[in-house]
Write a structure and sequence with these properties.
Blueprint: H1 16-22, E1 29-35, E2 38-44, H2 46-56, H3 65-70
Antiparallel strand pairs: 1-2
């Protein structure tokens, strides 16, 4: 098991073993996803970031209380 210690600002250095495995270099973007109570860290490719940002504004279409109520039983 590889560990890291949090700083006062809740930052941690990604251990070398993990950086090598994910092929991380300075300036890379990573994502954190919670799956079944565990955190998954992934390297995000620049193309993925731009694609996600492009979709972001379209995802708010269903983000209101009326939609939540209408689709609550689905």
């Amino acid at each position: 098991m590889t560990t890291a210690k949090l700083t006062q600002k809740y930052q941690a250095t990604i251990p070398q073993e993990i950086r090598r495995l994910l092929n991380l270099v300075k300036g890379d973007t990573i994502s954190f996803e919670i799956l079944n109570g565990k955190v998954v860290i992934k390297k995000i490719n620049p193309v993925d970031i731009e694609y996600t940002k492009a979709l972001e504004s379209t995802l708010s279409e269903w983000d209101n209380p009326e939609d939540d109520e209408a689709y609550n039983d689905l």
